[in-house]
Write a structure and sequence with these properties.
The structure is a homotrimer. Chain A is mainly alpha-helical and about 200 residues long. Chain A contains eight helices and no strands.
Chain lengths: ~200, ~200, ~200
């Protein structure tokens, strides 16, 4: 199990907890909590796979991810009182997962022969659209459209990826991009940085 | 026309009426009522087909289902006053349809070479996600996440299907699984059984 | 660049402005405005491509459309004060785009060997479902389900297309169908025509 697998699992766990937790706040039943955990964790990758036609989608061909999500949701329900204690840890996992998922999406796009701009869009979709689906199912306007910088971190990391890819070793490029995405996200939340808004 | 075709048509009709009726309650226009009827009836199967890559999706390759839904929606609008009279009949059709759609989804998953856990998920998606789309389009949190037991019936029926599949004739297994799903659903509504909820 | 390309670009621009504008009204941030512009402009075609399995979906294989939408959203943000001045122009572009997108969807359906009824549904999805996604993301019931005649224009234009296709030159048929869709839409808005509603 290499380092990127560890990050991917941590990110999946963090995303699943976020979905399950939001569902409990909205007083859904156990099935609702389970589905929200799943949708948040695998939603972005699922939309990506459907858009590029890589089907059956990723999580259907692999026992591991669904089992990890199932276990995470059960643990979230059992230990809901203690989750707030791990708030910062979870946020860091989430930020790491965001970085890694973005890079996974970009690489899938490259593999499908798409141009760099579209690959960055695919990476951003992979990182952010699980949360978009979560919020739509819970009847909110998606947080990622109006809260602290989130998707912008993916876009900046993605642009950096393509700027560096011909100059450095691929693994170095990945680490830099993930670090930048994760770093922007942490700085954004710490200093409550938001994108400008324009009312009409 | 065999028995499972009769059940499938009854289920489609019940789902289409449910969608059309919810749309009328929200004061949508005729087109909105039509779309909600369609989405509720074919939404689950459509998401399933898109996820496994079986495209063009099922209802696009078959004249019958769209025509049945169209006829059902028109009849629902014309006879809306009398529909409440058939409330129990409709509920029974809906429960039967839920059972059959779940089994159809499971069999599609087996056909696509997916593992049993994923097949059960596909069956549950087929049975439940038409209603999820209906509720999202009508700006509700999906009923299936917080009302009487619904998806859980699909999951139990699906597990039973895989437990029995090597021991009994396939048709017997299907009948048992459909009966169990349908039975759980009827008992759940009759006794107002809900899944536990965990607030945070 | 032929005439239908000019219409397609105008339609894309009009749809992107509509999405970006709605997002600004809901006080989304810059990323939210961008995504809403994209989803409104390419959502219908994306759902169509996913349903028929024509992947990677259309906008991923073409630099032009994403760049046009990006430029349109930036211009919408910069010149938001002046947009109301062009309200009528924009509405006309939107109506033209609706007509053209419907015909593009129908032709894709014919290319995929689908029957005429399904092709008309595909055309209607192409024309209308970008707006449906926009409204779902902004937490509204889709306008197209309860406001002035919209989808009905697509359906009528689509039926006309199939009635005329064996009798007239294909380009003449396209122009007639687009004109009819666009004309119905203009008349509907001018005279505030809505479809009948049936409450329950």
């Amino acid at each position: 199990m290499d380092i990127s697998e560890v990050i991917e699992i941590s990110g999946t766990v963090a995303f699943a907890i976020s979905g399950a937790f939001s569902a409990m706040q909205k007083r859904l039943d156990v099935f609702g909590v389970l589905i929200l955990g799943f949708v948040t964790a695998i939603g972005g990758g699922t939309i990506r796979d459907v858009l590029i036609g890589d089907t059956p989608v990723n999580w259907m061909r692999d026992y591991k991810t669904p089992l990890i999500i199932l276990g995470t949701v059960i643990a979230t329900i059992l230990f809901k009182k203690y989750i707030k204690t791990f708030k910062i840890t979870l946020f860091l996992f989430d930020a790491l997962g965001l970085g890694l998922f973005t890079i996974i999406g970009i690489q899938k796009g490259i593999g499908a022969g798409l141009n760099p701009g579209i690959c960055i869009a695919l990476g951003t979709i992979t990182g952010c659209f699980g949360g978009v689906l979560r919020d739509v199912l819970l009847n909110h306007i998606p947080l990622v459209f109006h809260k602290e910088i989130y998707a912008t971190a993916c876009i900046i990391g993605g642009v950096l990826y393509f700027l560096l890819i011909d100059r450095l070793d691929i693994n170095v490029v990945k680490i830099i991009a993930i670090t930048v995405i994760c770093g922007i996200r942490i700085v954004a939340v710490k200093f409550k940085l938001t994108l400008p808004k324009f009312y009409v």
